[in-house]
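JOB MANIFEST
job_type = single_chain_structure
chain_count = 1
residues = 85
[input]
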Amino acid sequence: MRNGSRADAVLANTEWHSISDELQTALAQQAMHRAAMIVAEQAEMFARQFGAGTLQDRGAEDALKLFAALLRETSTTSLTTVGNA
């Protein structure tokens, strides 16, 4: 939305519904993949902070690295099209 107004929200919703189901699905999958990559990057950042001693570590560094790897793996394999957008 350009300025966050209700009119902009209605316009964005109208524009979304004007594109094909296939394109909606592709865009949604791309957004979910990007979100998973952002969370994975944040998990790795926390792991580095634990590794550097910036944060108190209680075994979290390895757990966060595993979490990041799982996010990356599952986001590429499990975000397949199921049904319609």
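[summary]
The chain has one domain: 6-77.
Residues 1 and 11 are 9 Å apart (CA to CA).
exit_status = 0
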